[in-house]
């Protein structure tokens, strides 16, 4: 009898887990390729920094919908030459700086992870 009760409890437990925990939302992927993001990498790394590079980067990012702006900007930060050299940077600080430079909003609750 105890075995039947335990089986029922386990079945209910697994059903609730599948129903309530199966609806997690994943972070969207950036639709831009590395060459598009390369302009923003130049802006972040202060390599070939010109007003046209800043304008091009901001133009690329402003063409995206709000959730993707933060994702793509974060991707550009990850591609940054300074990060490749092993220099530790605060990714969220850089994200705020880039989006602030472009006057674009940051997605609420978004965290740029390494």
From TrEMBL:
<feature type="signal peptide">
    <location>
        <begin position="1"/>
        <end position="26"/>
    </location>
</feature>
<dbReference type="InterPro" id="IPR027923">
    <property type="entry name" value="Hydrophob_seed_dom"/>
</dbReference>
<feature type="domain" description="Hydrophobic seed protein">
    <location>
        <begin position="30"/>
        <end position="112"/>
    </location>
</feature>
<keyword id="KW-0732">Signal</keyword>
<protein>
    <submittedName>
        <fullName>Hydrophobic seed protein domain</fullName>
    </submittedName>
</protein>
<dbReference type="Pfam" id="PF14547">
    <property type="entry name" value="Hydrophob_seed"/>
</dbReference>
<dbReference type="InterPro" id="IPR051636">
    <property type="entry name" value="Plant_LTP/defense-related"/>
</dbReference>
């Amino acid at each position: 009898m105890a075995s039947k009760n335990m089986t029922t409890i386990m079945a209910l437990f697994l059903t609730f887990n599948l129903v309530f925990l199966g609806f997690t939302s994943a972070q969207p992927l950036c639709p831009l390729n590395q060459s598009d993001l390369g302009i923003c990498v130049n802006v972040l790394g202060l390599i070939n920094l010109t007003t046209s590079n800043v304008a091009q980067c901001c133009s690329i990012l402003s063409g995206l919908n709000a959730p993707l702006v933060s994702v793509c900007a974060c991707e550009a930060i990850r591609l940054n030459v300074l990060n490749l050299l092993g220099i530790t940077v605060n990714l969220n600080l850089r994200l705020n700086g880039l989006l602030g430079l472009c006057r674009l909003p940051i997605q609420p609750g978004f965290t740029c992870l390494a």
